[in-house]
Amino acid sequence: MPNTILQSDRVALACLRRKQRVENDRRDRIFDDRERTIGVDKEALDKQIKEKKEQDEAQKAQKKAFESELQQNSRRAWLLERKEARDRQEVARATCGYWHQQQQRLQNRADSQDDDGGTEVSIPGLVGIDREYMERQQRQKVQLREWLTQQQNEKAAEREKQKLERQQNDQNRVAMDRKLMQLHVAMTDTRRALAVATKDFNQLKAEEKGQRGQLDDGEEPRPSVVGVPGLTAKSDWKPPPETQQQVIEFRKCQAEERKRMELERQREKERADLDQINLGRTALLLERKQGRMNKTLRQQLDSTNAQLAQIQKEQMPDIKRGQIDDTFFSFFNTCSR
Fold it and tell me: How many Å apart are CA 48 and CA 189, to the nearest integer?
């Protein structure tokens, strides 16, 4: 029989496919980040874009104003440089004219003096004449020589002082190394003593454990024919009253011996616990003492390093500067001509 599809089924199938296509299109619109408009604040996005454009325009305007101001400043600087150059040229031209005028006047006076009789007359206060130039040069050379000698002596004293400080630092370092070595030796001895005590304690515990195991193995001995007199291997044999009394006494002795061994074992356990506590306390005290010694040595080392750094910081500027004070410049002639 051929497969036949009814008209109603075709219509239902077409309607179902149309709904599926519509649903797929709706999902594409909703879940596509570029095309969807649901769940997006368009006004806020437009406002952000507008604010960004305004910021870009403000930055461009600010940059343009800065460039304009920079150009104006550059032009002003160029004009000031030209003005200063012109002023320097005018000052140089006036100075040359003045020198030429004074030289011409002096030449005229010298000619008139030669004509009068050749008498040499010194005119004080004239520009360009320095009669004490050579003497001042000699004094400056002497002062410079004395200053250089003083500087060399001070540098030699500074080097000697630094050498002594380095020696002192080396001595302090050696003393600190010795203290550290002594502390290391003390720590090594302490650890060795603690290891020996621990070893002895463990050996003692092992021996006690072995003895305890032997005692536990022989704790309930079976009565034998040799141990209890009068007993035989016959099952129907009844011991006499004297022999039964001896067995009772023997069992009482065994019970007392077990009690005594249990008490001795408990005492040994308490003694071992006490020894272990003492060893732990001793190790704790040694560790605290070592911590205090390390802290003290560290504080001493930090204090020494801080003092050396302060001394070096205080002395470094004087070495770089050369120890030049204001009294050196007072030796020179600073009076005007």
Answer: 77
pTM beyond 0.85: no
Span 267-318, pLDDT tens digits: 888 888 888 888 888 888 888 888 888 888 888 888 888 888 888 777 664 5
Q: How many CB atoms lie within 10 A of CB 206?
A: 10
What region, left, alpha or beta, does residue 275 occupy, with left being phi > 0 and alpha being psi -120 to 50 degrees? alpha
- Check: CB of residue 204 under 8 Å from CB of residue 274: no
- What is the b/e burial string over 29-54, where b = at least 16 CB atoms within 10 angstroms of the residue's CB? eeeeeeeeeeeeeeeeeeeeeeeeee
Q: Is residue 296 part of a domain?
A: yes
Q: How many domains does the chain have?
A: 1
The C-alpha atoms of residue 253 and residue 261 are separated, in whole angstroms, by: 12
Closest by CA to 197, choosing from 126, 272, 130, is 272
Helix (H) or strand (E) holding 333: none
One-letter amino acid for residue 311 of the chain: I
Confidence band (pLDDT; 50, 70, 90) for 75? very high
CB proximity list for 276: less than 8 A, separation 6 or greater:
201
Asked if residue 136 belongs to a domain, the reply is no
Note whether 147 and 328 are within 8 A (CB).
yes
**Has residue 146 been placed in a domain?**
no
For residue 313, give its domain range: 170-230+239-321
How many Å apart are CA 29 and CA 39, to the nearest integer? 12
Question: What's the mean pLDDT in 152-165?
Answer: 91
d(CA 255, CA 28): 95
Q: Which of 184, 187, 165 is nearest to 309 (CA)?
A: 165
Distance separating the N- and C-terminal Cα atoms of the chain:
140
